[in-house]
Write a sequence for this structure.
């Protein structure tokens, strides 16, 4: 084999090596990941399905994780059914080919889907008309060590954003006729719902 042929073969193998290296380098470039978002704000208990995209095309994530709520292996996410604030943030993470794409979702109290309940216009008049009597929960009576005459005393019987854990709300939904409040008879469901909403909305002095 003459020198010309040798050089020709050497050049051929060099070209193959360069082509192979370029091809491998191209494959090693990580894909650009993105999320398809059905919405970026949701309420307690809402369900969303996320879709991962790699270079603009639908991709199957290797795994999904979340800091709040639950998510399955195909990106179906359920927000927590209860949060103890106006809003909280959940982080959704999709892992794909040793990469991670992160999304933040804002979760809002479901109670805020309803009009705001005013303490001054709704809750205090309700308590005044049904609870603030001598021998009951008026200033100076403190039946059961509970006073419901002013906001600061009312707030000691509630847990903001959590009506089900609040003494005030629990006393209104008791089923035992000997323990239900007020003793004269259970409040109308609409009034009890107003108390529930006010607490779930943060039990604010509004």
């Amino acid at each position: 084999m003459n020198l010309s042929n040798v050089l020709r073969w050497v050049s051929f193998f060099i070209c193959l090596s360069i082509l192979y290296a370029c091809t491998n380098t191209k494959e090693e470039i990580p894909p650009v990941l993105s999320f398809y978002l059905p919405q970026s704000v949701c309420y307690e208990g809402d369900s969303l399905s996320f879709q991962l995209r790699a270079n603009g095309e639908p991709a199957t994530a290797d795994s999904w994780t979340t800091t709040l709520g639950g998510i399955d292996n195909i990106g179906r996410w359920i927000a927590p059914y209860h949060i103890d604030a106006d809003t909280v943030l959940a982080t959704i993470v999709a892992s794909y080919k040793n990469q991670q794409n992160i999304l933040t979702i804002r979760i809002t109290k479901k109670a805020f889907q309803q009009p705001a309940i005013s303490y001054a216009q709704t809750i205090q008049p309700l308590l005044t008309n049904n609870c603030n009597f001598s021998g009951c929960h008026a200033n100076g009576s403190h039946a059961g060590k509970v006073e419901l005459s002013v906001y600061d005393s009312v707030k000691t019987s509630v847990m903001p954003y959590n009506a089900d854990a609040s003494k005030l709300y629990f006393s209104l939904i008791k089923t035992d006729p000997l323990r239900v409040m007020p003793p004269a008879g259970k409040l109308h469901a609409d009034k009890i719902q107003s108390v529930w909403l006010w607490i779930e909305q943060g039990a604010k002095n509004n």
